[in-house]
Design brief:
Glycerol-3-phosphate (1)-acyltransferase
């Protein structure tokens, strides 16, 4: 692991700790090969939760770069920023993703394009799945579930009219926050090529949504990190 990646992991772990968040890992995250991690998106802290498991290069909307402190930290983690609603931007980001794959990195993607309450998953945009398919990279779906005091919670979701400062204040003001990170079984690159980007986006969405919807998956067991 390079010094930069090690520092990204260190700072991510420190920020998660500062916010009073405990992370539980379920499943088997791929830690030693290029990979596309596809996850649902609940909060800006999702980036640092996943970085704590493995240093990850994320694709994120360009507005995040301008956020105070958080934007600097996200940029320092090697994030690939995308100008939304631009076909040229999607092509450029796809090329940058290919470069990261060639370097052996894992790329993190939040295909909802926005955050949600964490109790459901919005439809996925399929365009950036194409970069992984073209690079013949496996895809691992990841489900994020937030808890507060042992119960599923939407309290820490970064949604609606809430500001970044307001959401950060909420996280800093409470304890007993838990994020379960469930790494679902890997989808092989051959399967991704077979299905194509639209169908693999739908398939990945269905698997993550099944793991996110409240139910039996809410038991707080797993490996604490």
């Amino acid at each position: 692991m390079s010094v930069r990646l090690a520092m990204n992991r260190y700072w991510s772990a420190a920020l998660v700790w500062l916010c009073g968040i405990k992370v539980q890992v379920h499943g088997d995250p791929k830690l030693d090969a290029p990979m596309l991690w596809v996850a649902n998106h609940v909060s800006w802290v999702d980036i640092f939760v996943l970085n704590k498991v493995r240093p990850t290069v994320f694709v994120a909307k360009s507005e995040i770069r301008r956020w105070p402190v958080i934007g600097w930290l996200v940029a320092g983690a090697g994030t690939v920023f995308i100008e939304r609603n631009s076909r040229q931007a999607i092509r450029r980001v796809g090329e940058q993703m290919k470069q990261r794959f060639d370097q052996g990195h894992v790329v993190g993607l939040f295909p909802e394009g926005t955050t949600s309450s964490g109790f459901d998953v919005a439809p996925f945009h399929s365009s950036l799945f194409d970069a992984a398919i073209r690079a013949q990279i496996d895809i691992q779906p990841v489900a994020l579930r937030f808890f507060h005091k042992g119960r599923r919670s939407i309290e820490h979701a970064f949604v609606g009219e809430q500001t970044l400062v307001g959401n950060l204040w909420c996280l800093l003001g409470v304890r007993q926050v838990l994020v379960q990170v469930e790494f679902l079984s890997i989808i092989s690159c051959d399967r991704c090529v077979e299905l194509g980007r639209a169908r693999i986006a739908d398939y990945t969405h269905g698997r993550i949504r099944a793991a996110v919807l409240p139910g039996e998956a809410d038991a707080q067991d797993g490996r604490a990190h």
